[in-house]
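Re: [help] complex structure
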Amino acid sequence: MMTRTIPFIIGFLLVVAPFITPQYPLHLLIMILIWSLVYTAWSLMGRFGLVSLGHGAFMSIGAYVTALLWNYSGISPWIGIPAAMITAAIMAFLVAYPCFQFKIVGHYFALVTLALSEVVKLVIIASRDHTGGSLGFTPNREGDGTSFYALQFADKETFYFVVLGAWVLGLVIWRLVDKSMMRYALDSISEDEDASAAAGIHVTGSKLKITMLSAVLTALGGALYCQYQMFIGPEVIGGIGISLQIVFAVVVGGLYTMMGPTIGAIITLLMTEIFRNWITSLRTEGIDLAGLDTSIYGLMLILFIIFLPKGVLGELIDRLAGGRQKDTS
Amino acid sequence: MDEIFDIFLLEAIINGILFGGVLALLSLGLNLIFGVVDVVWICYAELVMFGMYTVYWLAGVYDINIFIAALGAIALVSVLGWLVHVLIISPILGTAPINQLLATGGLLFFLQSVATLMFSIEFRNLGLRLPILEFSEMYFSYARLLAFGVALVGMVVVYLFLTRTYIGAAIRAISQDREIMVLMGVNAKKIYWVTASIGGGLAGLAACLLVLQYDVHPFVGISFGPITFIICVLGGLGNMIGGFIAAFILSIIISIGGLYSEIEWGYVFAFAFFIVMMFIRPQGLLGKK
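Output below.
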């Protein structure tokens, strides 16, 4: 009874949220939804043991392709975002296909994808004449800042619904993958590739599909981030820092559940916001503790991985399931 | 015209080789740890950053003799390496390898921000200006020559340690077979401790050489961390000679790429070369299948 009504209550709250919350919490909510989409996209492949440290690259591609097409060719994000998603898919294919074909797994796969995220970051920095380099890039505003054609909205409420839709799409895709035959194929691949291949599973094909799907959704997240923040930088949405941040948030929330990445986004974003506000308030009192917030953040990540490797939600579900089993026996 | 061009190319290649010395030293420590403990320390470059700060404070601020400062940095980073292993790696040594990689990734954030907290984000340098060596119209900095020389000596010492001493033999044995060596009566824990400390010490040594050439700031690790991992993977993770060769190949690519265009393109070429090489030799240049 309870478990059936809770999603409806949350859904209702999410729909009415923009009308009752002030601007700052609404901003946080939008950021949480955008990052949740990216984290969910990562967990699509992460849960099958495909640990990618290259998702910063896909996010950057999503954001930069959309913004560059808009600024230099005047192509609307409605076309630019699909174009960016296709670019990300092609990129994922080019790197992942040989990886899977040559059985690059585990550490090696993580480090090859790490190289990918560095390549994309450095290309953005090096072509500074067009991308603004390390200083970042701002998409041109259309008119007074609100334009359906340019997917730019001056008010946060409209954008909230765009992002909410994208987040729900991410969850639906997660669920569809979870219910599909491919999921069983990938589960078995993550256990033993050779045995799966012997059982008639197309190993490379299955892994490639999930990787490209994950890359495409991540690019969508990157594009939405760009459209909302109206500012992107190579280190802001790419590079090793963001790639690690994506993995961490998912690990904190829980890798194997649908809502895990979202919970991870809520926990990590609230944590950084609270610490940042605290540091800022200390600074007004004359105490400069810049860096303390991220120190605590880093420390908590280490502790999470050591003590709660299944993530907050994963652990919670395990506890509840454990409790239930005791009840029935 | 052609002649001048060749001089520049030759200078770039030689500078690339000199730069490769430090990279080879960096990858040596990481490779040692990977080969023995089977863990990738994503935070390795951040340990180097702490070593650079140690030299900076001891020699630059407290005016202690630079050689003593260097020894201090090596000792401190060596202890840091041991702490990383004892506090972070050993509790999760039995879990999925990716957890260990991520835990050290958390440490990367932690070390970066602790450095920000302690030293602020200012760029600092020793203020030492080593002379430039001129050789038939080509220019090389003494700092790079020194770094190259020390890196080579460091590598020979590590090689001798691994091949000529009892504990070195035990380290090589355990990297070949983790389970059997424990049955043979080797104390795996002790070997891991020694390896982590040596790995840290090598990071400290690299820090002493890097601080002569570059400014130190909390995010300095990001600028050469990724290239170090790439070198290790390209050479075959855990394969020290492979890493050595890979360091020189990549540093020459970076140097030549930087000659024709901006230095970032040099790095782009190096990373792209790495990705392509992974498809040709996925096990690394000298890795075993």
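The beta strands of chain B are 132-135, 138-141.
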